[in-house]
Design brief:
Distance between the termini of chain A: 59 Å
Radius of gyration of chain B: 20 Å
Structural class of chain A: mainly alpha
Number of domains of chain B: 1
Oligomer: heterodimer
Shape of chain A: globular
Strand order of the largest sheet of chain B: 1-2
Order of helices and strands of chain B: HHHHHHEEHHHHHHEEHH
Number of helices of chain B: 14
Radius of gyration of chain A: 24 Å
Largest sheet of chain B: 2 strands, antiparallel
Order of helices and strands of chain A: HHHHHEEHHHHEEHHHHEEHH
CATH class of chain B: Mainly Alpha
Largest sheet of chain A: 2 strands, antiparallel
C-alpha cells in the first residue's frame, strides 16, 4: 500500500500533521490565558460581576483547549526522536537545552498552577487564585519564547560550531538564543495568538448579540475583542512586514518562493497577486501582477533589483506553490481582520457596536480566521525553509530516522485516526459551551458535577452513611 | 564505581530523577485509569477522577522533562532509543492522548454510558503497558551501528519485554489502588484496600519474575548482581524489598490510610534502584555509555544552571498544589 512513498516523505507528513494539530491550541491558549488574567484583574479591581461570569465562562473552554494542547504537545516532544533521530543527534546539544528550559520555566509553571486556576478559587481565595492565573498566563508566554527561539535557530542558525561527531554545539548561547529571526518571529507569533483569541471571543460575543443585544456578558466580550482586533491588526501587519524584510536578509530563497519570483528582476520586480506557480517549468502561470510593487515593498524603491530563484541552485529551492499560496492566505486574512477592526471602530463611533447585525455577522464569520492565518503562516515559514531542516546546514532528507516506510505509515495512520476523533469531540464540546451565553452566577469548570452525578447515579444512598 | 564523577554522571542522575518522579506521579494516575473498569458506578468514577484532576498535568510534565532532558543531555541515546522503541513510544503517546483529553471530555459528554471513561481506561492501560515494554526493550539491548539504530521496527517484541510490560501495569495498578485508599472514604476506600492486597502480591510476583529473567539476558547482568564483592552492594536491595513488603502488609491490615501509598512508592524506588544497578554505566545497555552519549560539556553546564535554580522552585509549587487539594475527596463535592 505504501510502496510508492518513502519514509522521509511520510515522516514529514506526520510532523506536519501532528504539528498543525498542535499549534492551534497554543495559539488559542496563549491569547486566552492572557484574556482570562485581564478578566480576573478587572473583576478584582472593579468588583463587577460580569467580569467573573466571563472569566468562569471562558475558563471552561480554556480547560478543554489547554488539555488538548498538552496531550498533542507531549507527542511533539517525542516526534523529534522517533521520526527525526539524525536531526536529534546532530542538533540535540543546541536545541535540546532550549527545550529543556521551556519545560523547566514554562510547562511546569503552567501545569503547577493550572489545578488551582481551574478548581481552586474557593480553596485559596481571590488573590492567590489571581496569582495562579497570572502564572499560567506567564507560562504560556515563556513557552512561546523558548520554542520560537529553537524554531528560529533552525531558520537562521547563529552562535554554533560543529564538533568531531558532526554535532552542532554552542559557541555563544546568547547569539544562539537571540538569533537573527527570533525577535521578529516571537512578536509576530504572540500577536497572532492574541488576534486569534480576540476573533474567537468576538465571534462568540457576536453570536449571542445577534440573538439578544441586551446581554451584559456578550456586550462586554464583544467590545473587548473588537478593541483588540482594531489595535493589534495594524501592529501585526507592520510586524509581519518587518519579519518579511528580516527573512529577505537571511533566507532570500523563502521570500522568492513567497513572491513567486522564479526569475530575477534587475530593474524592479512586480508583485504577483495571484497565479499558479509551476515548479517544473519554473514560472508562475496566469500571473496577475502589479509592476514594481514587490521591489517597493521589499526594498522601498520602485526600481531596486530583486534576485529570483534562478540565482540559487535548483536542489536548494523550496516548493514554491505551497509557500506562495499559504502566504497569500495568511496576508489576505490579515487584511480582512484589519477590515473587521476598522469596521467595528466606525460602528463604535456611531454608537452601533451592539446593534449592527452586519458587524456581528462579519465578526462571526471571522471567528476561525485567526487559526487559518496561523496555520498558513507556519506553513509558509516551514515550507519556505525546505529543503533544509537547519537552514543551509542540514538537509531534511539527512535528518530522518532510519525507519522503514511501513513503520512511519502505520504511526501516521494511527495519529490521523486518534486526532480526528479527539479533534471532532473537542470542537463539539467547545462549541456547545460557546452556544450558551454567559449568565449571572456562571460556575467554574467542575461545578456541574454534583447535580449531574445526582441525576444519573441510581441513589446517593449507596455512598451515603459515612459522609 | 570507576571513580568517575563528572557532569555526565550528574546529568544521568538528573534524568533518572525526572523519570522516577514521572513514574511515581503519573504511575498512580495511570493506575487509576486502569482500575476504572472495576468501579462501574458513575459517582465512584467522578470521585476517582477528581482525586487527580488538579494534578495530572503537572505529573505528565515530568515525562516531557525526561524525554526533553534526554534529547538535550544525551542526544545520541535519544536518537538511538526512540527509533528502536518506535512502536511502544507511539502507542504510549496515543494512549496518553486519549486518557489526557478524557479528564475534561468526560464531564462534557451527554451520553449516559460515557465513551470517554473507556478512552480513559484503555488509554491508561496502553500507556502503562508501552512504558513497561519500552523498559524491557532497553534492558535487553538494541542494535546500534555507528551513531544510529540498526535494528527493525519489531525488535522490541520479546517475552522479556512483555513481562516488563505486564509488571509495569501491575505496579501502576498498585500505586493507583493505594492512592485511592489515601484519597477516598467509605465503601470506595474499602474496595481499594481489597484491590491493594491482590495487586501487592501480583507486584511481588512481577518483581520476582523480572529479577529472575534479567540475569539471563546477558552474562554481565548476572555478574553485576551475583559476584563478590558486588553482592555487598546488591544484596541489600532484595532484603529491603522484603522489609517494605512486611510493612506494607501490616499497614493494609491495620487500615492506615496514608501508609500503603508511600510504602508502594518505596517498592518502586527499590525496583528502580535495581534497574540502575543493572544498567550502569550504560544508557543504551551494552552499546552506549553515558559518557559516549553525553552532550558537550557546554550544553550540560548551561542546563545545569536551570536545573539547580528551578527544580527546587518547581518542587515547591508542585507541593503547594498538592497541599491545596489535600485530604479525602467526597462523592458529589467536586472542586468548587
Amino acid at each position: 500500500m505504501f510502496e510508492g512513498f518513502d519514509a522521509v516523505v511520510l515522516a514529514r507528513a506526520q510532523f506536519a500533521f501532528t504539528m498543525s494539530f498542535h499549534i492551534i491550541f497554543p495559539a488559542f491558549s496563549i491569547g486566552l490565558a492572557s484574556y482570562l488574567a485581564v478578566l480576573e484583574a478587572l473583576w478584582l479591581w472593579t468588583g463587577r460581576e460580569v467580569f467573573i461570569n466571563l472569566f468562569q465562562y471562558w475558563l471552561k473552554i480554556f480547560a478543554i483547549a489547554f488539555g488538548m494542547g498538552v496531550v498533542s504537545g507531549v507527542v511533539m516532544s517525542y516526534q523529534f526522536g522517533t521520526n527525526w533521530s539524525a536531526f536529534s543527534d546532530k542538533t540535540g546539544p543546541v536545541i535540546g537545552p532550549l527545550m529543556a528550559y521551556e519545560v523547566l520555566t514554562a510547562f511546569f509553571l503552567e501545569a503547577g498552577f493550572l489545578g488551582v486556576m481551574l478548581f481552586g478559587l474557593n480553596r485559596v481565595g481571590k488573590n492567590l487564585h489571581f496569582l495562579a492565573t497570572l502564572m499560567v498566563a506567564t507560562g504560556t508566554l515563556i513557552s512561546a519564547f523558548w520554542i520560537l527561539s529553537a524554531n528560529s535557530w533552525m531558520q537562521t542558525p547563529t552562535g554554533y560550531a560543529i564538533n568531531a561527531n558532526g554535532q552542532f554545539v554552542a559557541a555563544d548561547w546568547l547569539k544562539l538564543i537571540f538569533n537573527p529571526s527570533f525577535p521578529y518571529r516571537l512578536v509576530h507569533m504572540v500577536l497572532a495568538a492574541y488576534l486569534t483569541t480576540s476573533l474567537v471571543v468576538g465571534a462568540v460575543g457576536a453570536f449571542h448579540l445577534l440573538r439578544d443585544q441586551r446581554l451584559a456578558g456578550p456586550r462586554v466580550m464583544f467590545s473587548m475583542a473588537m478593541w483588540m482586533a482594531t489595535i493589534v491588526a495594524p501592529i501585526q501587519i507592520l510586524a509581519g512586514d518587518q519579519h518579511g524584510l528580516n527573512t529577505l536578509e537571511h533566507q532570500p530563497a523563502k521570500v522568492m518562493a513567497m513572491e513567486g519570483h522564479y526569475q530575477s528582476h534587475p530593474d524592479g520586480a512586480p508583485l504577483i497577486l495571484f497565479g499558479l506557480p509551476d515548479q517544473r517549468e519554473a514560472k508562475v502561470k496566469y500571473a496577475i501582477e502589479v509592476p514594481k510593487l514587490s521591489s517597493l515593498i521589499l526594498k522601498h524603491s520602485l526600481n531596486a533589483p530583486l534576485a529570483g530563484l534562478d540565482t540559487i541552485p535548483r536542489e536548494n529551492w523550496p516548493p514554491v506553490p505551497i509557500t506562495f499560496w499559504s502566504f497569500r492566505i495568511m496576508v489576505g486574512l490579515g487584511f480582512l481582520i484589519l477590515g473587521l477592526g476598522l469596521f467595528s471602530l466606525w460602528m463604535r463611533w456611531r454608537g452601533r457596536l451592539y446593534d449592527s447585525r452586519l458587524l456581528h455577522a462579519f465578526a462571526m464569520a471571522m471567528g476561525p480566521a485567526g487559526f487559518i492565518a496561523v496555520l498558513a503562516g507556519w506553513i509558509t515559514t516551514e515550507t519556505g525553509r525546505q529543503p533544509f531542516a537547519v537552514f543551509g546546514l542540514l538537509r531534511t532528507v539527512d535528518a530522518a530516522s532510519p525507519l522503514a516506510a511501513p513503520a512511519v505509515a502505520s504511526s501516521l495512520i494511527a495519529f490521523v485516526i486518534a486526532y480526528f476523533i479527539i479533534f471532532a469531540a473537542g470542537i463539539v464540546y467547545i462549541l456547545r459551551l460557546m452556544a450558551a451565553p454567559p449568565h449571572p452566577g456562571e460556575e467554574g469548570p467542575r461545578a456541574d458535577v454534583p447535580t449531574r452525578a445526582a441525576g444519573i447515579a441510581p441513589a446517593p444512598a449507596a455512598q451515603g452513611g459515612h459522609a | 564505581m570507576m571513580g568517575i564523577f563528572d557532569i555526565a554522571v550528574v546529568w544521568a542522575f538528573i534524568i533518572a530523577f525526572a523519570v522516577f518522579v514521572y513514574v511515581v506521579l503519573d504511575g498512580f494516575d495511570l493506575g487509576l485509569g486502569m482500575l476504572f473498569p472495576l468501579f462501574p458506578n458513575k459517582a465512584d468514577r467522578d470521585v476517582i477522577m477528581n482525586t487527580v484532576a488538579p494534578v495530572w498535568d503537572g505529573n505528565e510534565t515530568w515525562l516531557v522533562l525526561g524525554g526533553g532532558g534526554l534529547f538535550a543531555a544525551f542526544p545520541l541515546a535519544y536518537a538511538v532509543l526512540m527509533p528502536a522503541l518506535y512502536t511502544p513510544i507511539i502507542a504510549m503517546l496515543i494512549g496518553l492522548v486519549f486518557r489526557g483529553v478524557a479528564f475534561e471530555f468526560r464531564w462534557r459528554s451527554r451520553r449516559e454510558r460515557n465513551l470517554w471513561d473507556i478512552a480513559f481506561a484503555a488509554g491508561s492501560l496502553l500507556a502503562a503497558l508501552s512504558q513497561g515494554i519500552a523498559l524491557g526493550a532497553i534492558l535487553q539491548g538494541v542494535h546500534v551501528d555507528g551513531r544510529q539504530y540498526a535494528g527493525g521496527w519489531w525488535d522490541w517484541l520479546t517475552p522479556f519485554s512483555m513481562l516488563t510490560g505486564a509488571a509495569t501495569v501491575v505496579g501502576y495498578g498498585l500505586l493507583g489502588a493505594t492512592w485511592l485508599v489515601m484519597k477516598t472514604e467509605g465503601e470506595l476506600r474499602d474496595r481499594a484496600y481489597h484491590l491493594s492486597g491482590w495487586l501487592l502480591f501480583a507486584m511481588l510476583g512481577a518483581i520476582g519474575a523480572v529479577s529472575i529473567a534479567t540475569p539471563f539476558l546477558d552474562a554481565e547482568y548476572a555478574r553485576r548482581w551475583f559476584t563478590w564483592p558486588n553482592i555487598l552492594l546488591t544484596a541489600p536491595v532484595p532484603v529491603a524489598v522484603a522489609g517494605v513488603t512486611v510493612l506494607l502488609l501490616r499497614s493494609l491490615a491495620n487500615k492506615q490510610d496514608y501508609r500503603p501509598f508511600f510504602l508502594s512508592l518505596a517498592l518502586f524506588a527499590l525496583s528502580y534502584a535495581g534497574l540502575g544497578i543493572s544498567m550502569w554505566p550504560y544508557i543504551v545497555p551494552r552499546s552506549i555509555t553515558i559518557w559516549q552519549a553525553a552532550s558537550p560539556e557546554g550544553s550540560q553546564i548551561f542546563m545545569l544552571f536551570g536545573v539547580v535554580a528551578l527544580v527546587p522552585v518547581i518542587l515547591a509549587y508542585t507541593s503547594w498544589n498538592y497541599w491545596v487539594f489535600r485530604g479525602k475527596v467526597r462523592a458529589g463535592s467536586g472542586y468548587h
